[in-house]
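Predict the 3D structure for this chain.
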Amino acid sequence: RQAHFMEVEVDPETGEVDVTKVVNVNDVGKVISWEGCEGQQYGGSYMAVGRGRSEEVVHDPVTGVMLNGNLLDYKIATIEDIGSVETFLVETGMGYGPYGALGIAEDVATVVPGLIVPAVHNALGVWVDAYPVTPDRVLRALGKTANV
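Done. Predicted structure below.
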């Protein structure tokens, strides 16, 4: 069991989405290491925000060659990309692992990217129709075009 929440601020003029807060609640069965579990939630949050906001493989439409196969052009999230991350661990002892433990990192990294589109909709009242939620996609959802 898990619950995740995201708060964003969106600039309707630029389309920029700032993730100001992520809250993760995970049933971990039995906590073996509090620091390890919280670290999984933090790491999963940053991976998720990167996937949801900026990570996109771009291919040349003619040749099929990957155009952003490096860390200069393939943007991953850093500590500057999320305002705060709050972590909550719930122990039910109902896990399938040793001592009733469960894994959680994949849960956070998989579920949290899906929170960005509804958070943007909550902020602006429009739906962005594709991931990642880039400024140009936000502006397009608002019926505007990016100034290039």
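The radius of gyration is 17 Å.
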